[in-house]
Amino acid sequence: MTFPKPSFTPAEPVAAPVIAPPVAEPRASRGSEIVRRAGATAAAVVPPLLTLLAILGLWQAAIGDSYGGLPSPVQVWTDSKDLILNPFFDHGGVDKGLFWHVLTSLKRVGVGFSISAICGVMLGVLIGSNRWAHRGLDPIFQVLRTVPPLAWLPISLAAFREAQPSALFVIFITSIWPIIINTAVGVRNIPTDYVNVAKVLRLSPIEYFFKILLPATTPYIFTGLRIGIGMSWLAIVASEMLLGGVGVGFFIWDQYNASRISDIIVALAWVGLTGFFLDRLVALLGHVISRGNAAS
């Protein structure tokens, strides 16, 4: 018995599929990126600049060249040109440029606000995490926070008998309330899941503070710090008007006594710009520390 011999047909080579190389997406050129950033910068700068020019124009048109009381912008420039162009002069004593007065006030704010920030966060954590502490302290804090900053000045002068610690106390007592209240709100709003996880992991109080409480309350803390730094800047300017010495508040009061209204207007511009800088600095710090969760 014979079997038929199988015949095989040689296979034809199969052509490999041609894969087209990926088409690179067109990348934005460096020039278009520069144009985009310039447009964003112009959109942020031009509107307030035009508004400022419009206000100065209306101010100049309303006052004119008559100098009786409030000076016009042109008169301010004429009277305070040297103060504007040279804020760094120092002739000794209180005869200094505005830079040195603002710097002295900033030092006082830095010391007083730092103390209030530390104490405010600690008290806020205590009130937010302990029910009995909240019931005992919160009503008192709600009453004290309504006391105007300058109302604390006679008390501080009677207690410390010197201008410098009295100014620091006024800054401290003015700026601590929003820090306490916002920190306490943040502690009370910690998600329950976070607390349960801490219990399951059996975190120690120190581990709970740094790993759960502090990250969860950082946006609230920096909201209080932003409000506090603004209030401390307001308090130091007002208190320096009464305490004397070097400082932007004393400078404003001294120029008022000398009837130099133009210099006061220039000092107010410095006060406003410095306060804005402090607010943006704290907001940026909160944005970085909270990784974008704090309001900027």
UniProtKB/TrEMBL annotation:
Entry keywords, A to Z: Cell inner membrane, Cell membrane, Ion transport, Membrane, Transmembrane, Transmembrane helix, Transport
Primary location: membrane
Domain annotation ABC transmembrane type-1: ranges: 102-286
InterPro entries assigned to the protein according to its UniProt record, in alphabetical order: MetI-like (IPR000515), MetI-like_sf (IPR035906), NtrB (IPR005889)
Transmembrane segments: 40-62, 109-128, 140-160, 166-187, 208-227, 233-253, 265-289
Pfam assignment, any one: BPD_transp_1
Superkingdom per UniProt: Bacteria
Membrane topology: Multi-pass membrane protein
Localization (cell): Cell inner membrane; Cell membrane
Record-stated family: Belongs to the binding-protein-dependent transport system permease family.
Protein name, per record: Nitrate/nitrite transport system permease protein
Organism of this sequence: Caulobacter rhizosphaerae
